[in-house]
Amino acid sequence: MNKRGHVLNALLLALGLGFVIEPGLDAATARTTAQITVPIVLGALFPDVDTAFGRHRKTLHSLPVLGIFLAYPIVFGNLRYVWIGVLTHYILDVVGSRRGIALFHPLSDAEYGFPTGVTTSSKYADLVTVVVTAIELAAFWAIHTHVVALDLDLSAASEAAAAFGL
Ligand SMILES: [Zn+2]
Question: Which Gene Ontology molecular function entries are recorded, alphabetically (predicted)?
């Protein structure tokens, strides 16, 4: 997927997640949406930095990189929702485009993708992006409601990380 698709995905997702995390039509929902939109869009833009540094769809499209973005807010108390942007970038590349991504780089250069995608220049690219975003929103809603709150207080985990000298 191209930059336009990733930004569209991130903006729609952040808007939807604002309502998932802070249901309502009030200032608290608007505040939450604003709070999560910036890190999610930044995260969604990040993996394609490997078009300039490293090898595209390998260097910054891997599970170890996602792990770093998951650990970062716990260790540094910053960039809390950025991992959502990185994760949805991967999902959109895997599901929405023809070429896969090297999930296990640097251990393996094999690229994983679904045969479902369209080429990044396809006239259906925006439609595919919107459909993928809707499915992601449903999944995040289910996780937030039934598994773990997306706005979980990470301070206890941060303190534990600090205790281990991180
Ligand atoms: Zn990408």
Answer: hydrolase activity
